[in-house]
């Protein structure tokens, strides 16, 4: 992602810094190019864009608003060709790392592969699947890597959520984008993840012991209890219907909160997209993420699961979704507050002012763009009403944004959230470390 901002007018270099729109923390952790003169504009912009491509990380370019209209001699010529040198593994380190890993894993009784989120920036997802095919091990993913490994893989066993995966370092091989650490050591640098996984797949002996053991003890999750006619809608019934909506033409966006845990339990069909933001737990992230994903991935219909507390932080972005004619389906899960915070530390500050959410989206629509009916912006309280709303959302007219407010009980949470919340609460309430 490259974000380009038009900043205030260019001043002298010495005074420009104090007017910077970028916080100090951002400048420390991401590349920020501040263009306030034309002489080095080419160099700064090229460097920023090439860094984004090479590192698969965001960069930020700030351009003073009075510069674009000013002619400059260098702009009359073709720009100097810019080449990106490919990243390469150190072949000697790669060979030694693979040899050490093979010796380590061939002694293991029941090895398991666990995929993490850095496979994406390392462009190593294909190599990971190649290794999984070759080694016979069961395959799991960390929560932040859900969607990076095909869940239809024959040995996919699910997601390690919360505190259920406590890796003992001495029994693990940790593969970073450019580094491999085996147990407590040795470590091998200048080894690209995708090269290491690809080479390991050609050398490793097949070992299906862990997967066979998993097959013996695994009890698949059951279906939720059926609803009685007119019964208040339960979250597990909602996600049962969301599961049925998924295909290779859809993508799931999960907001911080109970949607974290409920969406983790969805089974993703081949090609189904999945995004959620685990690292910082930023409440309100999903609304903007839904807007951006839907704008970029025109081949998929986005399904967003967002709590009412989170929605109130960034609700205005729905206006932009309507402006651009996006056909997203938003499930606004209204349980009257910040439920995830209640499970960590309860208090009156977790109860929020209830909004007329469907009325707000109607106001954003304001009679412009694709026509909106009552069934497009609708509140549901029972499974029967949910079915009617989904019938309209998935019907022949799929060119409109659909906003479905789902009213559920304030205590209707997943078992995983209750367990996670109690653990975080205990950690937060421990005495401070002695000085």
Automatic annotation (TrEMBL):
Its EC number is 4.1.1.1. It is an enzyme of class 4 (lyase). SUPFAM superfamilies: DHS-like NAD/FAD-binding domain, Thiamin diphosphate-binding fold (THDP-binding). It catalyses: a 2-oxocarboxylate + H(+) = an aldehyde + CO2. It comes from the Eukaryota. Residues 98-163 form the Thiamine pyrophosphate enzyme central domain. One of its GO terms (biological process) is aromatic amino acid family catabolic process to alcohol via Ehrlich pathway. Pfam families: TPP_enzyme_C (PF02775), TPP_enzyme_M (PF00205). Its cofactor is a metal cation; thiamine diphosphate. GO terms for molecular function: magnesium ion binding; pyruvate decarboxylase activity; thiamine pyrophosphate binding. Keywords: Decarboxylase, Lyase, Magnesium, Metal-binding, Thiamine pyrophosphate. One of its GO terms (cellular component) is cytosol. Residues 278-406 form the Thiamine pyrophosphate enzyme TPP-binding domain. PANTHER family: PYRUVATE DECARBOXYLASE (PTHR43452), PYRUVATE DECARBOXYLASE 2 (PTHR43452:SF6). Belongs to the TPP enzyme family. Homotetramer. This is pyruvate decarboxylase. It comes from Miscanthus lutarioriparius.
């Amino acid at each position: 992602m490259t974000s380009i901002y038009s900043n205030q007018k260019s001043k002298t270099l010495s005074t420009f810094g104090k007017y910077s729109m970028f916080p100090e923390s951002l400048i420390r952790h991401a590349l920020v190019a501040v263009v306030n003169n034309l002489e080095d504009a080419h160099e700064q912009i090229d460097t920023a864009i090439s860094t984004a491509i090479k590192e698969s990380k965001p960069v930020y370019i700030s351009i003073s608003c009075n510069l674009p209209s000013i002619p400059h001699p260098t702009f009359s010529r073709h720009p100097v060709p810019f080449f990106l040198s490919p990243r390469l593994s150190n072949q000697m380190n790669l060979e030694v790392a693979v040899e050490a890993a093979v010796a380590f894993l061939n002694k293991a009784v029941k090895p398991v592969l666990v995929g993490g989120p850095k496979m994406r920036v390392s462009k190593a997802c294909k190599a990971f699947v190649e290794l999984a095919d070759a080694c016979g091990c069961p395959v799991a993913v960390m929560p932040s890597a859900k969607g990076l490994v095909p869940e239809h893989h024959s040995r996919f066993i699910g997601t390690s959520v919360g505190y259920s995966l406590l890796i003992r370092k001495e029994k693990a091989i940790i593969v970073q984008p450019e580094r491999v650490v085996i147990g407590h050591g040795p470590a091998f640098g200048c080894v690209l993840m995708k090269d290491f996984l690809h080479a390991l797949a050609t050398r490793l002996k097949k070992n299906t012991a862990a997967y066979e053991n998993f097959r013996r003890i695994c009890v698949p999750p059951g279906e939720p209890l059926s609803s009685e006619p007119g019964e208040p809608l339960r979250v597990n019934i909602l996600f049962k219907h969301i599961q049925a909506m998924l295909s290779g033409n859809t993508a799931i966006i999960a907001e911080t909160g109970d949607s974290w845990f409920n969406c983790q339990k969805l089974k993703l069909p081949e090609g189904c997209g999945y995004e959620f933001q685990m690292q910082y737990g930023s409440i309100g992230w999903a609304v903007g993420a839904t807007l951006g994903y839907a704008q970029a991935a025109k081949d998929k219909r986005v399904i967003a699961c967002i709590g009412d507390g989170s929605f109130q932080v960034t609700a205005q972005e729905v206006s932009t979704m309507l402006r651009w004619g996006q056909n997203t389906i938003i499930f606004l899960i209204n349980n009257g507050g910040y439920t995830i915070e209640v499970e960590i530390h309860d208090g009156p500050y977790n109860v929020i002012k209830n909004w007329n959410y469907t009325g707000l989206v109607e106001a954003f629509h304001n009679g412009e763009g694709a026509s909106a009916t009552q069934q497009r912006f609708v509140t549901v309280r029972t499974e029967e009403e949910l079915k009617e709303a989904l019938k309209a959302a998935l019907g022949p007219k799929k060119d409109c944004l659909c906003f479905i407010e789902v009213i559920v009980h304030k205590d209707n949470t997943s078992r995983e959230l209750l367990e996670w919340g109690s653990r975080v609460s205990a950690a937060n309430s421990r005495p401070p470390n002695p000085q």
